[in-house]
Design brief:
- The chain is mainly α.
- The chain has seven helices and no strands.
- 68% of the residues lie in helices and 0% in strands.
- The mean pLDDT is 88.
Length: 133
């Protein structure tokens, strides 16, 4: 199997994938500024926390070496990156557990997709070695 970006730094590939794909969940389910506005919080500013966190998932996958297989590390890192913000979702009256579940689910899925694409493009499972056999 030929890996088109095998010569590229693994962290760079992961970070670029994260920046590109981190915006997809925003097109599907939010976060929605109005849910913060009703709490007298500036919603259009608060939602940037979710955008920044989702866009950084690829970078965190790229610099993390554990667990070794990409298909475990991607979803785990994705969920861990967004976990603190999902606790905020859980505390919101108009959101709660459904929003927490949606955000954790898309973060884990995004991590899986980004790590899988990075493996396919570079032939590496992780930053330190981990070359495909």
């Amino acid at each position: 199997m030929s890996h088109p970006l095998a010569a590229w730094p693994y962290v760079l590939v992961c970070a670029v994938l994260g920046l590109a794909l981190g915006w997809l969940p925003a097109q599907l389910h939010g976060p929605i500024p109005h849910k913060f506005d009703v709490l007298f919080i500036e919603g259009r500013i608060a939602i940037w926390a979710w955008y920044v966190a989702r866009s950084s998932i690829g970078f965190w996958i790229g610099i993390t070496a554990w667990p070794r297989p990409w298909w475990l590390r991607g979803p785990l890192v994705g969920a861990l990156v967004l976990l603190p913000l999902t606790l905020v979702s859980l505390a919101m009256p108009d959101c709660g557990a459904p929003c927490m579940r949606a955000n954790l689910g898309t973060a884990a899925t995004l991590g899986f997709v980004e790590a899988g694409l990075a493996w396919w493009l570079t032939g590496r499972h992780r930053l330190l070695g981990g070359a495909a056999r």
